[in-house]
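Recap from last week: sequence in, structure out.
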Amino acid sequence: MQTGRFAVIGIGNFGKSIAVNLAKKGAEVMAIDIDYDKVENISEDVAYAVTLNATDRRALISQDIKSFDAVIVAIGNPFEQRLLCTALLLDFGVKRIICRAVGRNQRFILQKMGITEIISPEQEIGLSVARRLINPSLVSYLDLPDDYSVAEIIAPKHICNMEYGQIDFRDKYKLSLITIRRNTEEWNGQKRQHVLGVPDTKTLMMENDILVLFGKNKDIEKFVEINN
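Predicted structure tokens:
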């Protein structure tokens, strides 16, 4: 499977995490930073690691930056460097630019430049932590447009030992149960998590099951509140 070629500019904690995980997935990754030590530290984890100033037009051109399928601008502070690097990439006609933003003002400026893929790691982590603090049953979630999400939640206690057909997810709660993740004991005594596939009406909800639900955020929250 072809996974593409990516350049990650800015190898702080955020950029390094992106670059290393892309490489683990089989992508061809070039890591770029002005700091020689950061480049050395990641050199064995990616295909290419280059020390250069990403606000230097000639330096970027020398790496054939336009040929990559996507360029991720993960430069930290100052924001001006991120802006200048992004402006150069736009000027080069890079196919796909993903840029980091901290706060609404940075996001607004990048959007006005025409950047449509913007990542705000601090904000996203803060929102995720807040959601999990408010709702301890929430394991993970994927936000979708129009206030929908796919959420993984620990099975509420009041539905445990009930069959899927008895719970009436669709009509009563306006939710779809996509699948269930369940811990099962292996022959050696260790526990391993398995996906049960598409549930049928006789599928039993068990304690510690992870339910994968699709629906409106308010309906997911209401379902957990009522059944816990």
